[in-house]
Amino acid sequence: MKKKNNYFYDSFTNLMDYALEAMSILTKGLEDFRNINLLEFKNNVHKVEHEADVLKHEYEEKLAKEFITPIDREDIFVLYDNIDDLIDSIDEVSYKLYLRNYALLPNNLNIMIEKSFEAIKSLKEIFVNFRNIDKKSIMDPLINKVIVIEEEMDKIYEENVHDLYVESNDYDKNRTFEKVYSYFEYITDKCRDVCKTILIIMYKNL
Known about the structure:
Layout lengths: L1 H30 L6 H28 L7 H27 L9 H20 L7 H32 L3 H35 L1
Helix pairs in contact: 1-2, 1-3, 1-4, 2-3, 3-6, 4-5, 4-6, 5-6
């Protein structure tokens, strides 16, 4: 039983490692954005997303055959989907930058990239401690940390978008940059969504 528990707990952290890897590749590419090949950049991030999809499918196949799981089977499936959605949101950034052939990024994007990375790292920390899903005193602070980061990102997004339209009358450019900001705000939204699922599971297991 303990071995099976470890397997499912480890599966969550393993999938989160792919989220961190995708975010790391995305971040490094954006640091040298003027000099990157957008197609290669997109493909590098998408490769990680595809590998995560393959692993998720393997976990789901194994889950379908298990009779005993540490938490409800359907909850594990939902968490797999939530983490997959998070990785997809990271992949979406490089895809959209390539699709729309961006040559320039908006100012103050670094703080949004950092916040996204921080949210993903903090989310993984929740899964590292997921064996304590029935211990509210342990889980609550970890979950709240991600929620706070997401709220901070909402505020940063609002301020940055507002500043765009205050500082420039170039509506097309502003709309283009607003979309870039929204990509990273969406990543933290996905982290929050995973936390919502975890909260539901936690209260079911108290």
